[in-house]
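Moderator note: this is an archived Q&A kept for reference. The question asked for a predicted structure of one protein chain; the sequence and the answer are reproduced below.
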Amino acid sequence: MNIRNNKGFSLVTTLVLSMVALAFISTLAYFVQSGSQTTASLGSYKSSLDVAKGTADFLIAGVRDNQVGCADNITKVTTFISRYDNETTTHDISVTNYECKSFDNDEKELYIFTIEVNRGANQEKSIVEFGYLEDFSS
């Protein structure tokens, strides 16, 4: 077989190479887009975590200033935190667990908090659990 006219072969080769280039560019665009979504989600989580850490600092200050005590229940703690929650318009803050234990003849109190922070309508949230030991003996 003699092929005198290579125009058909060139056309097929060009089409195949064009399809390979298109597939490569499409894959690259997909990875760039999914990376942007992951970065945005991580940024939202970090901001929720920062709000949760700020809430923890606010609660510790309330314990130190005797605005939150062992005799209080979770409703009192939620009321105390509502001032901070009202100033944070982008996040919803809730205290989902509160426990306080006294020991060593009431010279020490251990506060255990669980704080949940949701960012608006997003699914991203952060949950911070921490304990704070108040020592009255010193």
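Archived answer notes: The beta strands are 91-103, 108-119, 125-135.
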